[in-house]
């Protein structure tokens, strides 16, 4: 996770490990967490006294590992966030000279974007890669693969795509260049059209600079065996 889109109430796990088997990481002082919110110039320390921050100390000398679960109680506002972490052992030694930092982006509105076949062109198999935003996975996703004359040769449902999440997705589904009857289709250019719905309403495509080859929920596939 660095610059990735996440849901407005993400669950983030932060883990600290120590090879020393005699002094277990069992105190909150071993992991300091800071957050810089959109529009802020300085980071703020996340308190373990606040809701949404849970510390779990090491339980075994064989695995001296502590972790923190951060899950905000309310939805985060839109924008880019920066999470910083500093871990120390029982002797006060820091895990590094600088804070460990990761950025993530929150977009509350449900949308679909960056919907591309991969690889493209392809010879024998391809998957779909796309990004979802918001707090809920679409109820329905339908992908139609069409000839240049507009004939639908393959229709793919959400259930075929595999597990989905808010953020970047790569489908379990693989298209082998065959139609709905299992017959191979010829080399050439094909279109794919995407329709997605949440609570009965169509989900908008979020326009970005990276969507110049996926406009109005339609893109191209190049099959070259």
The CATH architecture of the largest domain is Sandwich
Per the CATH scheme, the topology name of the largest domain is Immunoglobulin-like
Main sheet? 6 strands, antiparallel
Look at the helices and sheets and give the structural class: mainly beta
Quaternary structure annotation = single chain
> What is the strand content?
35-45%
SSE string: EEEEEEEEEEEEHEEEEEE
Query: What's the CATH first level of the largest domain?
Result: Mainly Beta
Low-confidence stretches: none
Average per-residue pLDDT, rounded, comes to: 93
Say how many strands there are: 18
In short:
The protein is built from one helix and 18 strands.
Describe this structure in words.
The model has no long low-confidence stretch (mean pLDDT 93). The chain has 1 helix and 18 strands. The strands form 4 sheets. Strands 11, 12, 14, 15, 17 and 18 form a 6-stranded antiparallel beta sheet that branches. It has a 5-stranded mixed beta sheet with strand order 1-8-7-3-4, with no helix packed on it. Strands 13-10-9-16 form a 4-stranded mixed beta sheet, with no helix packed on it. Strand 5 and strand 6 (65-70) form a beta hairpin. With 225 residues, it is mainly β. The protein is elongated. The protein folds into 2 domains: 4-106, Immunoglobulin-like (Sandwich), CATH 2.60.40; 111-223, Immunoglobulin-like (Sandwich), CATH 2.60.40.4070.
